[in-house]
From TrEMBL:
This is Polymerase delta-interacting protein 2-like. PROSITE patterns: APAG (PS51087). InterPro entries: ApaG_domain, ApaG_sf. The gene is LOC103250101. It holds the Pfam family DUF525. PANTHER family: F-BOX ONLY PROTEIN 3, POLYMERASE DELTA-INTERACTING PROTEIN 2. One of its GO terms (cellular component) is nucleus.
């Protein structure tokens, strides 16, 4: 859904607002009803419940991973998008929400990203490129229900040399396959 993304609960909860529309999104009022007598004052509408039911398989987070190097915090939230059969094999899909936060007053420019994605079926994929603005990284589907990823993002800090932000190993898995 355009304009919708994931964040870690730690980043937004507890969340309180006195505004009747605290989040600017075209579906906010279709999904939530403001009721000042309730705590919290927002109640899910049937539209939200139906949307959650329909999209529930790829809304489940497997984990949230964080690492901070030289005042640059990286948060990675992977989640399973589903599986389909292709040419007599299973193809598994994940989405990764990656957030880089500058915790310092220096200006930081993201210069490069370098990811290694390993499927437990033995496939190793490398994704590398300059920046991310205006570009979409495309990773191929993998053949196993579990994979591991790790990487680096190279940043340039104003008035200092470049630094490499280590993005530590994180695993993703299809919980329905494992359980």
């Amino acid at each position: 859904m355009p304009g919708l993304d994931y964040v870690s609960h730690e980043d937004i909860l507890p969340y309180t607002s006195t505004d009747q529309v605290p989040i600017q999104h075209e579906l906010f009022e279709r999904f939530l009803l403001y009721d000042q007598t309730k705590v919290p004052p927002f109640v899910a509408r049937e539209t939200l419940r139906a949307w959650q039911e329909k999209n529930h398989p790829w809304l489940e987070l497997s984990d949230v991973h964080r690492e901070t190097t030289e005042n640059i915090r990286v948060t990675v939230i992977p989640f399973y998008m589903g599986m389909r059969e292709a040419q007599n094999s299973h193809v598994y899909w994940w989405r990764y929400c990656i957030r880089l936060e500058n915790l310092d007053s220096d200006v930081v420019q993201l210069r490069e990203r370098h990811w290694r994605i390993f499927s437990l079926s033995g496939t190793l994929e490398t994704v590398r490129g300059r920046g991310v603005v205006g570009r979409v990284s495309v990773t191929a589907p993998v053949s196993g229900p579990t994979q591991q990823a790790w990487g680096l993002s190279a940043c340039k800090v104003t008035d200092r040399s470049s630094l490499c932000q280590h993005i530590g190993w994180f695993g993703v898995r299809n919980l329905r396959t494992i359980l």
